[in-house]
Design a protein that fits this description.
mainly alpha; Helix Hairpins; 2 helices; about 75% helix; about 0% strand; disordered N terminus
Length: about 70
């Protein structure tokens, strides 16, 4: 079941997590210009927020299912 509030241009959780890991690896490797480093940092922040949104949505769905299950008992 897809979240209807999700931005169609926003990557899914797995894609965002993989890209975030690649961004971190590039930053940790060093050798980038300040401008490139800042651009990667900004992209990483965006990807981290995307992952957080996906996780928050998943957490909410799990909590909803658990509440519904408890109310049936």
């Amino acid at each position: 079941m897809a979240d209807t509030t999700e931005n169609a241009d926003e990557p899914g959780y797995e894609q965002a997590r993989e890209e975030l890991a690649a961004v971190v690896a590039k930053l940790e490797a060093g050798g980038l210009s300040l401008e490139d480093s800042l651009a990667l940092w900004e992209r990483g922040e965006l990807l981290a927020r995307t992952c957080e949104r996906h996780l928050a949505g998943a957490r909410e769905r799990v909590e909803t299912v658990l509440r519904e299950a408890e109310s049936r008992e």
